[in-house]
Amino acid sequence: MNADIEMLLKIQEYDKQIYQLESEFAKKLEEREKLEELLTAYTLNMEQAQEELDEILEDLNFKKNLLEEKEILLEKLDEKSNAVYNQKQSDALSSEITIAKTNKSILEDKILEIQAVVDDKNKKISEIQQQIDETKQKLEAFDVQLSEIKRDIDKQIEKINEDKQTMLSEINPNLLAKYNKIAIWAKGSAVVRVENETCYGCFIKLPPQVSVLVEETEEIVYCPNCGRILYKKE
């Protein structure tokens, strides 16, 4: 095997370890993002529930004011009844009192219904607030854990890079530059074996002339399909 290829495979093993660590941390960030999304959803639910409650309370206050007006009207009608002089006035006043009492009763029933809705809405808001508080606590605890994980991963990557650094000066710089360019997207598979005339990076059947170069020469050969660096399986 070409000495540079052999060295690249060793470097790639270090890079695989780094990619694995970075991948683990990325998954943790995704978990945190889900918690953030959950908190956002709860917050939006809270805002919507609060807006609905405000509208209901506005309607409740409006009806309470109407009820107060009806009660004042009934007091005035009651006072007015003392000054009735004939049957006609008495009948008219009685009819007016009946209507006022009916409207008052309807308003009282409606206020009780609305108050029940207000109680339910307040209960829901309390539940949502509990969800928000719990999610915030989870986020705070997760951030502490995430910070510790990040420190640990950074130390591991630093150690890996130190170990890898000793090899970099021993390899052809042009080849190393090409490897690094491929490794950006290949993520630990910039250098792949050829087996049964197949590139084990993209799993495309290689042209015969490419397979021959890999199998029978020490040349640096690239997959014509994916661009990865190829080597012969020993």
How would you characterize this protein structure?
- It is a single chain.
- By secondary structure, this protein is mainly alpha-helical.
- The protein has four helices and four strands.
- Strands 2-1-4-3 form a four-stranded mixed β-sheet.
- Helix 1 (3-80) runs antiparallel to helix 2.
- It is rod-shaped and about 125 Å long.
Helix content: over 70%
Q: What is the rounded Rg?
A: 40 Å
The low-pLDDT segments are none
Oligomeric status of the shown chains?
Answer: single chain
Give me the side-by-side strand order of the main sheet: 2-1-4-3
Write the H/E string, N to C: HHHEEHEE
Q: Major β-sheet, in short? A: 4 strands, mixed
Mean pLDDT: 92
Distance between the termini: 8 Å
What is the molecular shape?
Answer: rod-shaped
| Secondary structural class | mainly alpha
Number-wise, the strands total 4
Number of helices: 4
Q: What are the SSEs and their pairings?
A:
Layout: H1 3-80, H2 87-168, H3 173-186, E1 191-195, E2 198-199, H4 208-216, E3 221-222, E4 229-232
Parallel strand pairs: 1-4
Antiparallel strand pairs: 1-2, 3-4
Helix pairs in contact: 1-2
